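My main concern about presentation is that the manuscript never shows what a single data entry looks like. An entry of this sort, consisting of the sequence and the corresponding backbone structure tokens, reads as follows:
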Amino acid sequence: MTSPATPSGPAPSLVARTVALDLAEAVSLVSLLPADHPVAWLRRGDGLVGWGEAAVLRSSGPTRFSDADKWWRETIARADVDDSVGEPGTGPVCFGSFAFGDLPGDSVLVLPEVVVGRRGDRAWLTTISTTGSPAPTPTVAPAEAPLPPSAVSFADGALNGEQWMSVVADAVARISAGDLEKVVLARDLVVRADERIDVRWPVHRLTESYPMCWTFHVDGMFGATPEMLVRRERGLVTSRVLAGTIRRTGDDERDLALAATLARSSKDLEEHEYAVRSVADALEPHCSSMNVPEAPFVLHLPNVMHLATDVNGVVHDAGTVSSLQLAEALHPSAAVGGTPTVVATELIDEIEGMARGRYAGPVGWMDANGDGEWGIALRSAEVVGDTVRLFAGCGIVADSDPEAELAEAQAKFVPVRDALAGS
């Protein structure tokens, strides 16, 4: 069931049933995904996978978040829910992927027909029916494995490396002139295969190679993001802020030295401070108390290292403000837009030279209580048929070097590039 492009139609009536599931520890959630509209949100073996489409909402423009949240509340209000597990992520769960900008701003919220979840030693199965009766209980077993893309070729997207470095230099000049403090600029690569690409292949590989990240797929948008925009769970809220990056060399001793350099880098610490400040300012109106660490830690990933800060708080308005509304309040943070936000996003529109689509927008899930996890669609790509667009962005400040930023963007392409390889 799919709603109109504008959310004017009634929310569907649903029957949702959640039961405990005896899922062997050796069975990975990602292995359960069939080719029928798969969705995924996975980290370190836990998370949610789903398939089929019980209902879909596509929203756009500046009201894309509020339209989606309203539709979800109406959908849940009309649902017959029997949830014998009672964990965050049980009962009806929607998966969403939202556009970075207001225009065109095409976004999607999907309610799967089947969701399988795991948290620690607990697993569950949720079925959704739109017929008025409970759906038959499906067999939960590994699906037929996806095949790798064949005859893959890579090409520059909207701008080649030289053109993009010129854009970065332009941004640095404007920052030096005092127009703004920071802007995040992105570029894309285009990958083509000789036949339709099964998105489950790169999703499988990302879960294996980047277990510390949140691997996701919603409606063609997939990736392994290291950045949690917001998690809301039973009144507690968390946001992981990443800003400031250095590429790993593969030599452990050398990488430890580079991590120390990153932790002392005035350029990266300045960039990171902007991002943390923007998140704390956006969460503060919703929190009765907050913890904002004074200094970041260095997050080590297989390909890069980031300055990272976990901002935590206690939400005082959980009864009226959902995790998706918190994600809207936080988006775009300085980590993906810049500072000041309005000036930076206007500059992105003016000089970046490509359509971001859902890149760097919120992606994640939400349950019937409004709890959920929303990451930022980074280290990501969008697949349409036999074509994939890969995205990577860099935070530009006054002393940014265009060549260094290009090298950083290349490093950020690595996760998805490697995931599309055939072996």
User: Anything to note?
Assistant: The first strand starts at residue 14 and ends at 20. Residues 1-9 have pLDDT under 50 and may be disordered. The chain has one domain: 14-419. Residues 266-283 form the longest helix (18 residues).
